TrEMBL record:
Pfam short name (any one): BPD_transp_1
Annotated localization: Cell membrane
Stretches assigned to the ABC transmembrane type-1 domain: 68-271
Broad class of the protein's primary localization: membrane
Name listed for the protein in its UniProt record: Sulfate transport system permease protein CysT
């Protein structure tokens, strides 16, 4: 007679349409261990060798705190902007047909293909005080290059595709009949957007925000040119890590990296909890 554990084990190992579960699972775990877990464990272990007092001194250093505030603050602002405008771009590309739509759709992926250093140089040239946009904004008292505002613009540029490409497939699955039915039942445009369409888009929007935010926090190449890298003003945490490495202060560099890792993990955990909540609520 087959026991319950044996039955459970048989159900776990029963064949599926795609064979090779054990092999692929083992390969996946080994790959993640080599590529992600071991490097992160080494980072945490190197930081732990500092001792709590030294680690706390580095973590509470004014320059470190300011660099972390700039990195996470600008990444959050840029991701929030991309959520709004990225969703609008995705909606226009899906719902409307107009000349040049395919060109615009291809241009959305340009930040993926463009080297980040090239993007940073181009944005700096454009928004510097003598650039095309910078010269127009200077009389208004708006300075973009070498300020946190320039960092936000750079992060908006590199983060937009994450939101557009995450939301776009979900919009394609929404039938136009849903909007027409809402209008037939008396819903105005505001109600149609926020009560009918947004609940279905919410999980994808949160996912796009998470991807854009994660990319922005660790971005380096497109930011260092337009930021100006002024301590306490426009210096980002990844640049501060590089500076500490160039000073051969490996302890400080690993400590700052560990702090970034912990903060990023905490914020992404919160975002994932919000994703789970939106999926359960809106289906």
């Amino acid at each position: 007679m087959t026991t319950a554990p044996a039955k459970a084990g048989w159900r776990f190992r029963q064949p599926s349409v795609i064979p090779g579960f054990g092999l692929t699972l083992g390969f996946s775990l080994a790959y993640l261990t080599l590529i992600i877990l071991i490097p992160l464990s080494g980072l945490v272990w190197r930081s732990a060798s500092l001792g709590w007092s030294d680690f706390w001194a580095i973590a509470t250093d004014r320059r470190t705190v300011k660099a972390l505030e700039i990195s996470f603050g600008t990444a959050f602002i840029a991701a929030s902007i991309n959520v709004v405008f990225g969703t609008i771009v995705a909606w226009v590309l899906v719902r409307y047909r107009f000349p040049g739509r395919r060109v615009i759709d291809a241009m959305v992926d340009l930040p993926f293909a463009l080297p980040t250093a090239v993007a940073g140089i181009a944005l700096t040239t454009l928004y510097s005080p003598k650039g095309w946009m910078g010269a127009l904004l200077a009389p208004l008292g708006i300075k973009v290059a070498y300020t946190p505002l320039g960092i936000v613009i750079a992060l908006v540029f590199i983060g937009l595709p994450f939101v557009v490409r995450t939301v776009q497939p979900i919009i394609e699955e929404i039938d136009k009949e849903v909007e027409e039915a809402a209008a037939t039942l008396g819903a105005n445009r505001f109600q149609t957007i926020f009560l009918v369409l947004f609940p279905g888009l919410a999980p994808a929007v949160v996912t796009g925000f998470a991807l854009a935010f994660a990319r922005g926090v660790g971005e380096y190449g497109s930011v260092i040119f337009i930021a100006g890298n002024l301590p306490y003003i426009s210096e980002i945490a990844p640049l501060l890590i590089v500076i500490r490495l160039e000073e051969y202060d490996y302890a400080a560099a690993t400590a700052i990296a560990t702090i970034m890792l912990a903060l990023s993990f905490a914020m992404l955990l919160v975002i994932n909890l919000i994703q789970s909540w939106t999926r359960k609520r809106y289906g």
